């Protein structure tokens, strides 16, 4: 279905939990988040029902996110249920990778097609400091497990942060020489816990790595490749190259609220709706998508939620 700006909306980002086994400084408060009542979070059946209704409204690709989707009880049932829906061509997941050694194989069997693994630094001390709870070796073991389980087209998400990982840009780009990975540098967005002062434009990557040659873009990502490299380098630039004109997505939070735009406070409650009522609410959410966000003018996202509640 097209929104009011004639954008075809085919992509749903579905958050399955706001809980996480890490506490990345730009995403979650140090103390974590209060565990919601079981009844405040969509059940496995409700999540599948929302995805089914979204598919009836033209969604063909679903990305499961969080919080950390792999800590959600019933995650394999959610994947299986959504992958089996008529109209859903692809189910993907964004994860910190920590639990992939146990779950990569079962995820593939449950129908997950591709993974994005978040990894903002290749240095163990920095990883521990940024995530407050994590060990780099566990995230790297997760990436290896994804490959061993047969996942292809895996992407590594790197949020660019001045004074934290900008001296690792070349190291991340070098990974694409040896491995068939897409390293995606993401501009830090000024929302929730994020320190807007650490923002770096995506173009920094191009200035640091002049050998990169243009490759075909994919969705909202501009892409490059090292000559002879096995992988790709992508830039996701919501701040400097605002890509709202190509936005093809809606988001649903784990408590069942549709967000027409990541950066607006508007939310449409979907819980307790069934059948045609649910489809109508989703169509209303698609129609309510604003033409663009206003972070550049306003210096801050308008959403009051932290990223762990929305899913990126
Ligand atoms: N826990 C999973 C993970 O980390 O991949 C999925 C959820 S996480 C909220 C999804 C993505 O959002 C991650 O790649 C994370 O780095 C990114 N993210 C979180 N806060 C951000 C911010 N303020 N600006 C840009 N990206 C952000
Ligand atoms: Fe957890 Fe992902 Fe947020 Fe890090 S970015 S705290 S891994 S939800």
The count of domains is 1
Structural class: alpha/beta
CATH structural architecture: Alpha-Beta Barrel
Span between termini: 22 Å
Chemical compounds bound to the protein: S-adenosylmethionine, iron/sulfur cluster
Task: Output the CATH homologous superfamily.
Answer: Aldolase class I
- What is CATH's topology name? TIM Barrel
CATH class: Alpha Beta
Shape: globular
**Count of distinct strands:** 12
Query: How much helical structure, as a percent, in the residues?
Result: 25-40%
Strand content: 15-25%
Main pleated-sheet profile:
12 strands, mixed
Quote the average pLDDT: 95
Description:
The structure is a single chain. The protein has 312 residues and is α/β, with parallel strands linked by helices. The chain has a single domain, classed as Aldolase class I (TIM Barrel, Alpha-Beta Barrel). Helix content is 29%, strand content 19%. The protein has 10 helices and 12 strands. α1 runs parallel beside α2, α1 crosses α8 and α3 packs parallel to α5. The protein binds S-adenosylmethionine and iron/sulfur cluster. Iron/sulfur cluster (SF4) binds next to α10.
């Amino acid at each position: 279905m097209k929104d009011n700006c004639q954008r075809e909306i085919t992509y749903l980002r579905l958050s399955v939990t706001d809980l996480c086994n890490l506490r990345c400084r730009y995403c979650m408060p140090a103390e974590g988040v209060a565990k919601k009542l079981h009844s405040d979070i969509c059940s496995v059946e409700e999540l599948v029902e929302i995805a089914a209704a979204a598919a009836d409204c033209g969604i063909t690709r679903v990305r499961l996110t969080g919080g950390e989707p792999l800590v959600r009880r019933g995650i394999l049932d959610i994947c299986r249920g959504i992958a089996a829906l008529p109209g859903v061509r692809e189910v993907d997941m964004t994860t910190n990778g920590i639990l992939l050694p146990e779950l990569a194989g079962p995820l593939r069997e449950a129908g997950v097609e591709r993974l994005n693994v978040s990894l903002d630094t290749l240095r163990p001390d920095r990883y521990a400091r940024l995530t407050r709870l994590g060990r780099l070796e566990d995230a790297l073991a997760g990436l290896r497990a994804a490959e061993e389980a047969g996942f292809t087209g895996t992407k590594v998400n790197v949020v660019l942060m001045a004074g934290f990982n900008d001296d690792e840009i070349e190291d991340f780009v070098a990974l694409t020489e040896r491995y068939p990975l897409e390293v995606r540098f993401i501009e830090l967005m000024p929302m929730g816990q994020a320190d807007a002062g650490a923002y770096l434009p995506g173009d920094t990557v191009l200035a640091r790595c002049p050998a990169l040659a243009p490759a075909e873009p994919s969705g909202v990502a501009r892409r490059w490749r090292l000559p002879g490299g096995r992988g790709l380098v992508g830039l996701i630039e919501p701040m400097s190259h605002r890509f709202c004109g190509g936005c093809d997505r809606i988001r649903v939070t784990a408590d069942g609220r549709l967000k027409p735009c990541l950066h607006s406070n508007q939310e449409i409650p979907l819980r307790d709706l069934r059948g045609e009522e649910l489809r109508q609410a989703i169509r209303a959410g698609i129609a309510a998508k604003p033409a663009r966000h206003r972070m550049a003018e306003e210096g801050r996202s308008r959403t009051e939620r932290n990223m762990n509640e929305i899913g990126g």
